[in-house]
Amino acid sequence: MFSFFKKDKSKPVDSPASESSDVVENTTPVEASAPVAKQEDAAPKLGWAARLKQGLTKTRQQFTKQIASLFGGGQIDEDLYEELETVLLTSDMGVEATTSLLKNVRDKVTLRDLKDPAALKGELKDALCELIQPLEQPLNVSTHHPFVIMMVGVNGAGKTTSIGKLTHYFQSQGKSVLLAAGDTFRAAAREQLLAWGDRNNVTVIAQDGGDPAAVAFDAIHAAKARGIDVVLVDTAGRLPTQLHLMEEIKKVKRVVTKAEPTAPHEILLVLDANTGQNAVQQVKAFDDALDLSGLILTKLDGTAKGGVIAAIAKVRPVPLRFIGVGEGLDDLRPFIANDFVNALFDEEGV
């Protein structure tokens, strides 16, 4: 049975477009959602640049420590290039990106006849920014109404949390949002999404088990009936090797298109930055299956090595729409290449 949830009880609950859906109102408040909001309100408000630097602290400490040891003195020779190659590889940049960056740096050293190893830091920074710049393509949700976004990824990548944060982000832009609890395979997924819906005071279309494609279909019709701006469709987490489950998510995509011929307008793959080069393999597999339009890279606030962004840029340059550098609602923001590189190298200007 389908369920229609919204915390706001001051407005009447309309029926979703699908006549087969039973409509109920969620009148049970989600425990701890209000205290969390109060804690966030009481916390010092840092700007995004400061939170980006703060979130990348562990990544930066490891990276800059290795870089500083290379460029502290000596001369530019093959030994230095070999050490730099090791640093880049151990930073999750991958073979292809590392090879490209080294070639770029070598060419600039030769062209400018550089002798001081310290000058290589600036050249490396510029080369990295140049490599990942094409991934900087902000998401524009004003092109369709409703704008339908499918969220995909493996279990544990932070998909449901990213949906909650995206909801908050779109609301801050004055957009109305509706959530579709399409992960009907995992018992806790529905409850987690309902909690985020309650926290953000948005509608959630859900079903107790059953067909995830039907949930998506019903949600899109409900959004049309209500004039909703953005629909976020959750899907079950799956590994790229689980071919039967990948076929299931292809079905969700087909049914979304039946509900709205121009949709889905965005298919976002959520990646855990801690998985390193495995994230690149996930991008390849999901892109081949679903034709991805964007990525979200989460958990950059831990020990993750942000170099995987360079690997993705070189191997499969799918636009990186958002990055997450913390647990707060405001810690998921659009990816800006120059800000990311400056934060990684601990430079001013971000």
TrEMBL record:
<dbReference type="InterPro" id="IPR000897">
    <property type="entry name" value="SRP54_GTPase_dom"/>
</dbReference>
<dbReference type="InterPro" id="IPR042101">
    <property type="entry name" value="SRP54_N_sf"/>
</dbReference>
<keyword id="KW-0472">Membrane</keyword>
<feature type="domain" description="SRP54-type proteins GTP-binding">
    <location>
        <begin position="319"/>
        <end position="332"/>
    </location>
</feature>
<feature type="binding site">
    <location>
        <begin position="153"/>
        <end position="160"/>
    </location>
    <ligand>
        <name>GTP</name>
    </ligand>
</feature>
<feature type="compositionally biased region" description="Basic and acidic residues">
    <location>
        <begin position="1"/>
        <end position="12"/>
    </location>
</feature>
<feature type="region of interest" description="Disordered">
    <location>
        <begin position="1"/>
        <end position="39"/>
    </location>
</feature>
<feature type="compositionally biased region" description="Polar residues">
    <location>
        <begin position="17"/>
        <end position="30"/>
    </location>
</feature>
<dbReference type="InterPro" id="IPR004390">
    <property type="entry name" value="SR_rcpt_FtsY"/>
</dbReference>
<dbReference type="Pfam" id="PF00448">
    <property type="entry name" value="SRP54"/>
</dbReference>
<comment type="similarity">
    <text>Belongs to the GTP-binding SRP family. FtsY subfamily.</text>
</comment>
<dbReference type="InterPro" id="IPR003593">
    <property type="entry name" value="AAA+_ATPase"/>
</dbReference>
<keyword id="KW-0675">Receptor</keyword>
<protein>
    <recommendedName>
        <fullName>Signal recognition particle receptor FtsY</fullName>
        <ecNumber>3.6.5.4</ecNumber>
    </recommendedName>
</protein>
<keyword id="KW-0547">Nucleotide-binding</keyword>
<feature type="binding site">
    <location>
        <begin position="234"/>
        <end position="238"/>
    </location>
    <ligand>
        <name>GTP</name>
    </ligand>
</feature>
<dbReference type="InterPro" id="IPR027417">
    <property type="entry name" value="P-loop_NTPase"/>
</dbReference>
<dbReference type="Pfam" id="PF02881">
    <property type="entry name" value="SRP54_N"/>
</dbReference>
<comment type="subunit">
    <text>Part of the signal recognition particle protein translocation system, which is composed of SRP and FtsY. SRP is a ribonucleoprotein composed of Ffh and a 4.5S RNA molecule.</text>
</comment>
<keyword id="KW-0963">Cytoplasm</keyword>
<dbReference type="InterPro" id="IPR036225">
    <property type="entry name" value="SRP/SRP_N"/>
</dbReference>
<keyword id="KW-1003">Cell membrane</keyword>
<dbReference type="InterPro" id="IPR013822">
    <property type="entry name" value="Signal_recog_particl_SRP54_hlx"/>
</dbReference>
<keyword id="KW-0342">GTP-binding</keyword>
<keyword id="KW-0378">Hydrolase</keyword>
<feature type="binding site">
    <location>
        <begin position="298"/>
        <end position="301"/>
    </location>
    <ligand>
        <name>GTP</name>
    </ligand>
</feature>
<comment type="function">
    <text>Involved in targeting and insertion of nascent membrane proteins into the cytoplasmic membrane. Acts as a receptor for the complex formed by the signal recognition particle (SRP) and the ribosome-nascent chain (RNC). Interaction with SRP-RNC leads to the transfer of the RNC complex to the Sec translocase for insertion into the membrane, the hydrolysis of GTP by both Ffh and FtsY, and the dissociation of the SRP-FtsY complex into the individual components.</text>
</comment>
